[in-house]
Amino acid sequence: MMFALEIARRLLGSKIALGALVCLALVVGVNFYGEMRWRAGYEAYRLEMLEAAAEAERNRIEDDARLKDLSLPDLCADYLGSRGMPVEDCEQLRGLPVE
Q1: What does the DSSP 8-state code read for residue 84?
Q2: pTM
Q3: Which end of the chain has the lower number of beta carbons within 10 A, N or C?
């Protein structure tokens, strides 16, 4: 940095040019810092979304395994019961053949 300032002072010879060069260096530095912070936040956001998607997939796999083992009446009762509906009609499914 000091080397660039010395070159600018020798080539341009004015304090205005030197001040402009310092301002340019500050603007570039601040933009670089802001870009790095933005990227870090974006990467953290993406990681959070990927972790949430992986957790949802794990839950889906567990639910699929649990539902696969249920009989028709139990599946009906699970579905209707989780929605607050009466499950008495599910008993009619007992004895029906499972495909």
Answers
A1: T
A2: 0.46
A3: C
